[in-house]
Write a structure and sequence with these properties.
Layout lengths: L18 H22 L7 H9 L5 E2 H8 L3 H13 L3 E6 L2 E9 L4 H22 L1 H15 L7
Antiparallel strand pairs: 1-3, 2-3
Helix pairs in contact: 1-5, 3-4, 5-6
Length: 156
């Protein structure tokens, strides 16, 4: 059932509890924890924006236009961020095997220390969440989020 709200200058009841806002706040919490833990391990040049962009890169690589779409920004702005990450040694460009004109952005595989640190930090944060929610709560949350994200396109 969909609830509607009349136009008003007041914040409607339930604003703080709407699912979109809660998902956004949970994501922000996760990103902040990642950034703090990476900075503590010496990766101080990475901003929250850089971390978000890195999370959008698929294991086989991703085109800049796709990254820009995922981040909701222009291709030019994404290109600027990718250049920063290239200079810092986190990503590299490679030819797209399906389109000679396109370029794929990939994580630098030789940067194994960073990748290991990043995966360990993600595991730490998941453990923190598990302690707060109980392990069954985390598994239920993961299952519900997957179901939400995997629903049929026709359900949108």
């Amino acid at each position: 059932m969909t609830e509607t709200v009349e136009q008003t200058s007041q914040v409607p009841d339930g604003y703080d509890d709407n699912i979109g806002r809660l998902l956004q706040l949970a994501l922000r919490d996760f990103q902040t924890r990642c950034a703090e833990k990476l900075h503590a391990r010496g990766y101080t040049q990475l901003s929250a924006t850089h971390l978000t962009i890195l999370s959008y890169i698929d294991p086989a690589g991703t085109r800049i236009v796709t990254l820009a779409d995922r981040a909701g920004m222009t291709k030019q702005s994404m290109g600027d961020l990718i250049r920063e990450l290239e200079v810092q040694g986190y990503v590299e460009r490679s030819p797209d095997p399906h389109d000679k004109r396109a370029v794929m952005i990939k994580m630098v595989e030789s940067n194994t220390t960073f990748l290991a640190d990043a995966y360990n930090i993600i595991a730490e944060i998941q453990s923190e969440y598990a302690a707060a929610l109980k392990s069954s709560g985390v598994e239920q949350l993961r299952s519900l989020l997957k179901a939400l994200l995997n629903r049929n396109v026709s359900d949108k």
